[in-house]
User: Fold this.
Amino acid sequence: MTNTVIETTINLWQNGRRIKRSAGGWLSGNGVCCHHNGETADIRGRAGLIISDEKVNYSCFNCGFKTGYSSGHLLSERFKQLLDWMGADQPTIDRLMMETLKVREDNTLARFSKKSTFFMANFHSVELPEYSERIDSTDPTHQVYIDYLKTRAIDLDDHRFYITPEAEGRNKNRIIIPYYYQEQLVGNTSRFLDDRKPKYISEQQRGFVFNIDGQQKEWEVCIVVEGQFDAISIGGCAVMGNTILDEQVAILRKLYRKIIVVPDRDKTGMNICDRALELNYSVSIPPWNDDIKDVNDAVKFYGRLPTLLSILQHETTNKIKIEMMRKRFK
Assistant:
């Protein structure tokens, strides 16, 4: 048995308990969960572990508590509860959590390496559109652009925004969102403020992840969304589509932190969940109001901090939970 989590669970279960091995492979003993779940203590050996090289499952036939762990996955809250009830101290649980995080990262890297060659980001430098000037809060002629950003709950300090008021046609009435990679300008999106379509026109290089330069070293989580305004409003990254390209996976991996994908709240937007599960990323679909279509809508309605907290509270890697949450958008 080489899996540390499974070894530790077996040792905790057998420590100081009378354990019987059944013909079916169960290690049976008195449950450690019953009084935590409002039942009388088990004195008939009605709980047990069943183990293989890749997973361990615990079931109690006295109170009905069940949980398990499979190699390559993170520890669930229920499994951490079980470890605690068996006598594991918090440093032991924290150590096991760190080991499962490393195993999952190594497995993701191995799968990625099999599917594609190593990607070295090599974006070429570009220029901003002609007549571009940065939005200036002291210039009264720029107020219309500032007012639009306020309707998106976005401040001028959140990103560098440009405009081209001296240009001709529709280009007079647009906000330009520049793209940076390692402080080099590598693309941009124009958001037109009139009612005509297309609303957005982009100059974008394959594999780029928007706002990757905005991720701070001390952050432990990166929130990945679809659109640029979503990313700006929450301090996250945008993949600018309803999937995550292999090249974008390579860039996100360099952050060395947990990735939480928050899909747009429609049928097409939910497609990114499948890719997130394939990559072992977490997914968050908070129970926001029905008229909220994306992260930026949530920030406008709830505020930045409540939106961020709701994303963190509802993140999961459980495929069944994710499928249940996304059903309402199909």
